Amino acid sequence: MITIVFGLPGSGKSHFASWLANLANADYISSDRLRKGIHTAGNYSDQEKMAVYDEMLEQMKASLKENRNLVIDATFYKEAIRKKFVQEAGGADHIVFIELIADETTISERLKRKRAFSDADFEVYQKIKEQFEPMKQPHLVLHSTNENLPDMLKKAVSYLHINDD
């Protein structure tokens, strides 16, 4: 199963996705970690962003070929990018989207803190927020706070039918 965790910078995607991957016995791809490995500029240009998505897509295809579960963590801010991943996964039946949202105050606080792999700050958040195209297809939306990780994971596990016989 391919699970894509998406949303704006500071929404809690990476923290949530890494825990979810562990629960789902899945490999984990972080766009932030890939960006650090591919580029040193960290300027979030369209060219940089597309290079990261292209690499994630290649890794997703390899996971599909090897029949491995995978959790991908990135903003997926454009419908065309999401559509490309769905097509490469073999259709909507083979991929699940989970969107994380958070209050702007929470996002602002989170983006002030130094993070190991992400250079996104509030300015990057605002830029991506302006470009963000809402997902119209059915998907799970989770509201992230600084205290509700266990509840979000419980909802995601239920939604994904993890541990179902």
How would you summarize the topology of this molecule?
Elements lengths: L1 E5 L6 H11 L3 E4 H8 L7 H20 L4 E4 L5 H11 L5 E7 L2 H9 L9 H10 L8 E4 L5 H12 L5
Parallel strand pairs: 1-3, 1-4, 2-3, 4-5
Helix pairs in contact: 1-7, 2-3, 3-4
Sum up the structure in keywords.
Rossmann fold, single chain, 165 residues, alpha/beta, 7 helices, globular, 5 strands
Helix content: 40-55%
Determine the number of helices (DSSP H or I, runs of at least 4 residues): 7
- CATH fold naming: Rossmann fold
Question: Largest sheet, if any?
Answer: 5 strands, parallel
Structural class: alpha/beta
Q: What are the segments in which pLDDT stays under 50 over at least 5 consecutive residues?
A: none
- C-alpha termini separation: 15 Å
CATH class: Alpha Beta
Radius of gyration: 15 Å
* Global geometry: globular
Oligomer: single chain
> Mean pLDDT score, rounded?
90
Polypeptide structure, described:
- It is built from 7 helices and 5 strands; from the N terminus they run E-H-E-H-H-E-H-E-H-H-E-H.
- Strands 2-3-1-4-5 form a 5-stranded parallel β-sheet, sandwiched between helices.
- The protein starts with a strand and ends in a 5-residue tail after the last helix.
- The protein has a single domain (7-160), classed as P-loop containing nucleotide triphosphate hydrolases (Rossmann fold, 3-Layer(aba) Sandwich).
- It is an alpha/beta fold.
